[in-house]
Structure formats: structure tokens, C-alpha cells
Amino acid sequence: MDNIHIDSGLLGKCGEIIKGYHEPCRVALVTDYTVGALYVTTVADSLKSAGFEVFIFAFEGGEQSKNLETYGKILEFFADNEITRSDLAVALGGGVVGDLTGFAAATYMRGINYVQMPTTLLSMVDSSIGGKTSIDLDAGKNLCGAFHQPLCVISSVDTLETLDKKYYNDGVAEIIKYAMLGNDRIMQSLEKGIDCEIIKEAVKTKLSFVEGDEFDRGRRRMLNLGHTVGHAVEHASRYAIPHGHAVAIGMCAMARAGEKLGITEEGTSSELERLVSGFGLPTTTIISPDDLLNSALSDKKRSGDNIDLVFPISFGKCEIKTFPVEKLGEIISLGVK
Ligand SMILES: NC(=O)c1ccc[n+]([C@@H]2O[C@H](COP(=O)([O-])OP(=O)(O)OC[C@H]3O[C@@H](n4cnc5c(N)ncnc54)[C@H](O)[C@@H]3O)[C@@H](O)[C@H]2O)c1
Ligand SMILES: [Zn+2]
């Protein structure tokens, strides 16, 4: 947690903060157009005042850009601006900017250092933490990626003031996930509203699952709650449904399917649905179970003939269950109906 800075007003201090982790060097500052228009000048000025030389790359935001093409452009930008292994990449934006920049940093010259500066609730509580980086392939979400830890994470919570409600709620969905995984303190604070403290609590929860399982073979997989169906919803909707909304649908689907399969305590799904819809998030989808299955079959959580699925057992308790892949269609059907 020491290298994760969460507070208001950190954009203008980021140069000094980063200097505590890395001596002044060339910085490739990556952002999307929306975030760039709002915040890149403050960040670039702060970096320059601290002695860094700054090169800015911006792209059209959104999941549609989290692909090989943008990834290639970022790598070429690094090369054109003579970024070397002793230099830095800085990701300023939501999870899309963070995932793309992190993956570019993981692979450029076999790995350079990078810093995450998340500006969405989802990226503050989830994607900037834990070192997973990735891009999407046509076949599915996050199919190409690497584990690469940032030097530090700087979450300037005041940036959330300009975030659209829809995207804000995406972050709420991941916070509800932490509540489902057992953090009841988060549950109580959720009702009061989101502030620095709840973001810190969410980050601690994520770290507690990541610690000791950096490469996602054990306990960390619990964080996939709602994500198998969620990624299928994102992919099948061609990313019209954003990540957190899709995860909300995915969690509710697993609770409903779990109840029908006798895995989940009765009443869990209705409690979860109430919470999810109370935050303006969807609880199900009109996408057909067949389309969802096709998208889900390319999911990384499949290993050979089996698939690991995280089921809520009750509110605040979840378990991983392994099923033969042939059973997935039935589980999805039970979940979305
Ligand atoms: N690496 C991981 O462990 C991990 C975990 C969870 C999610 N993710 C990934 O994160 C991505 C979703 O991230 P996201 O929800 O942050 O979406 P996003 O990056 O697409 O941002 C959402 C929108 O908000 C805009 N925006 C960002 N910050 C803003 C601000 N402060 N003010 C105004 N507008 C702002 C962006 O331009 C964009 O249009 C998905 O690709 C998902 O797969 C990764
Ligand atoms: Zn997620």
C-alpha cells in the first residue's frame, strides 16, 4: 500500500511524488483525448517542474481502442521519442489507458518502468492495482497481456468530479464485488457515499486477494466474480455495455444460477439485485445465452476442458467451482433468465 497514493489534489504534485521513485528522465505520458483535455497540462507541468522531460501521446478513449492498433501506436511513439529502459511511461486515465500503457511498458524493450495515474473510480479501486495489463483481441477481452507492476499509483480523487455518472457506476460495481467477497466495512460505507476512505478500503481488499498470488493461480481468481459472464456481455455487445455494468450483470447472473443449482443460499440474488439496481446498474441482459456462450468460450478462465467459476455462496461469501466446459451454456442460461 506504501506506493499507492490516494488523496485530492495529487495531479499537481505528481512530479515530486514520482521523483521519490525514479530520478528525472524522459517520460512518455499516455492519456485519452477526454482526460487529456482536462488534466494533461497539470500533470505535464508538474513533471517538468520536477525535472522530467515530457512527451505526450493521446488517443480516442474507450474500450474500442484497447486493441493491437493503439498498442502498436504507443510502442512506436516510445521509439520515436527515444524512450529507453532507464525512462518512464505514465498512464493518465481510466482502465483503458492504464491497461494499454501498462502492457506497452511491459513489452517495450522487454519492459520499462511505468506509473499509474487512474482518473476513474474503477481504475482507482481495481485496474491500477495488482499489475495486470492487457489488450483485447477480436476473439475476446484481455486475451493478450502481461503481469507488470507499476512503480507507484497516484489516484487524485478530485478527478472523479468530472467523470460521467455511467462510468462512475462502473467503479461502484467493482466495489459491490468486494462487498460480495466479504468486506462488510465497504458495504456500510457504500451506503454513505464514496470518498477517499472507501477507495482506500477497496484497494486494501484487492491487495488482500492479490498478495501471495501475483500470477492469478489461487486466491486472486476470486476477483473474477461476475467476470466470465461480464466479459462475455462486453464482447457480445461489442463493448457498448461498459465493464462495470457487465460485471454487475455477471455477478447477478452467477447468484441466480447458483441458487438454481443449489450452490447459493436462497435470497442472495434478490439482495444483490436490489443493491446493484439501487446504484443504477443493470442486473441482467437481453443478449441471448447462445451469443454469451460463444463469447465466453474464448475467456482466459477456461483451462482445457474445465472452467473455473466464482459463485456467491451467500452475501459476503464466494467460492470457486470447477465445471466441465459443456456445462457453461446451461449455467449462463440459468443466470440470465
Ligand atoms: N488490469 C486490471 O486488473 C483491470 C481490472 C478491472 C478492469 N480493467 C479494465 O479497465 C477498463 C475499464 O476502465 P474504466 O472503467 O476506467 O474505463 P475507461 O478507461 O474507458 O474510462 C471511461 C470513460 O471515462 C473517461 N474519463 C476517464 N477519466 C475521466 C475523468 N476523470 N473525467 C471525465 N472523463 C473521464 C474516459 O475518457 C472514457 O471515455 C476495461 O478495459 C477493463 O477490462 C482492468
Ligand atoms: Zn473488473
Question: How would you sum up this structure in a few lines?
Answer:
The protein has 337 residues and is an alpha/beta fold.
The CATH architecture name of the largest domain reads: Up-down Bundle
Strand order of the largest sheet: 1-8-5-4-2-3
The unreliable regions are: none
Number of extended strands: 11
Strand content: 15-25%
Ligand catalogue:
nicotinamide-adenine-dinucleotide, zinc ion
Helical content class: 40-55%
Classification by helices and strands: alpha/beta
Work out the count of structural domains.
2
Radius of gyration: 19 Å
CATH topology of the largest domain: Dehydroquinate synthase-like, alpha domain
Sum up the overall morphology in one term.
Answer: globular
Number of helices: 13
Calculate the mean pLDDT score and round it: 94
Give an overview in words.
This protein folds into two domains: 4-162, Rossmann fold, CATH 3.40.50; 166-336, Dehydroquinate synthase-like - alpha domain (Dehydroquinate synthase-like, alpha domain, Up-down Bundle), CATH 1.20.1090.10. The protein has helices at residues 14-19, 33-49, 68-80, 95-107, 121-127, 165-180, 184-192, 196-210, 227-236, 243-261, 268-278, 289-296, 328-336; strands at residues 4-7, 26-32, 53-59, 88-93, 113-118, 132-137, 140-147, 152-156, 302-303, 306-314, 317-324. The relative contact order is 0.11. The radius of gyration is 19 Å and the shape is globular. The protein is α/β, with parallel strands linked by helices. Strand 6 (132-137) and strand 7 (140-147) form a beta hairpin. It is built from 13 helices and eleven strands. The strands form three sheets. Strands 1-8-5-4-2-3 form a six-stranded parallel β-sheet, sandwiched between helices. The chain has a three-stranded antiparallel β-sheet with strand order 9-10-11. The site of zinc ion has 5 residues, from helix 10.
